[in-house]
Amino acid sequence: VPVSDLLDRASQRSDTLHALSTLLTHELDSHFPPLGRVIMPRPSMCHTSSLQTPNDKEQALQVSESDLLSLARSLLQAWIDPLTVLSNSANNLPHPAQNSISNKIQELQEHSKSLGDGLDILSGKMGAAAQGISFLPYRGGNDIGHDKISKLTNFHFLLSCFRRDSHKIDSFLKVLRCRAAKMC
Amino acid sequence: MRYSPPEKPVLTRCRSPEKETFTCWWEPGSDGGLPTTYALFYRKENSETVYECPDYHTAGENSCFFNKNDTSIWVNYNITVVATNALGSTFSDPVDIDVVYIVKPNHPEKVTVTVMEDKGWPFLRVSWEPPHQADTRSGWITLIYELRVKLEGENEWEMHLAGQQKMFNIFSLRSGGTYLVQVRCKPDHGFWSEWSTTSYIKVPDYF
Ligand code: NA
Ligand code: NA
Ligand code: NA
Questions:
Q1: What's the average model confidence in pLDDT over B66-79?
Q2: Which CATH architecture has domain A3-39+54-180?
Q3: CATH fold of B10-101
Q4: Which residue in A71, A84, B77, B135 has the fewest CB atoms around it within 10 Å?
């Protein structure tokens, strides 16, 4: 399978992944305690925030193909553990849409897994420089909180970190896709 | 006339047309009967430094334009507008934005419509270009397109989703006459543009 086809499929997956995380955020927002917004940790507290990533077009277009792929893989890898935490917590989330949220988190996990497998294959085809990934451990533990407000707040916080990271992954893959196709 | 401090301004909208620059607009409240100035301040996530709007002119009245150098994505901007007159200052409610979630492109350009024929039946071929500011070639922004068409004098538009293509054939013509065609676009994660200006095309009476 040509690299351009693999990138095409991968960016369709990443697009879905980000769209799902946006749906989830809106669903969660529909019943969210005002206090939660006040005590919500800042985005700089996300466990992936130490990863240096480009933050505009000019910077992104200067990053090599192998580095773009390795950034996407590092971010995806960093979410394996916290997505499990989200999935377990979704089972008893004190929210009226708990069932739907739980199902969507499961979909997120499945899409992340298959996107990760696809990117592994791609990195194998793109040479040694594309193999390296940064390790971004999640140290938040398995428990997202005891009372209703802290459960909802921490869940929302983790999800908003994922939402931003999935947008980065999607953007990097779409730039890669157009480079592989020479131009979009 | 009783003078007073200005009413609280309201930050109404922020928009990025291409994921590279953005503009925010506000509505001033009453000026309290005194000359009043407006200033927009912002602070970016991970920094304590407060900056003032870099450009009040480019986007017109009651707006602030952030050019490429002043725009980052995946970074929250906390934005406030301050109204000041001789009796005091009032602050708008602050707004938090990440540029990736305020993308609404300009409408597609160079829309052309031609009448074609397939086995004796007419159809419309519509083609267009992305808004020139949007860098779709590098993949920085990905656009999908939607068309709508109607016979002159009809009320209902017929919609067609074209995906990422920049050309679309409309086979569902029911009679000759003048057809109106418009195209709009939406980024992968953002809002629909306005519709393009209407293109008119006359279809001869084949029917
Ligand atoms: Na202005
Ligand atoms: Na910039
Ligand atoms: Na495009």
A1: 97
A2: Up-down Bundle (1.20)
A3: Immunoglobulin-like (2.60.40)
A4: A84
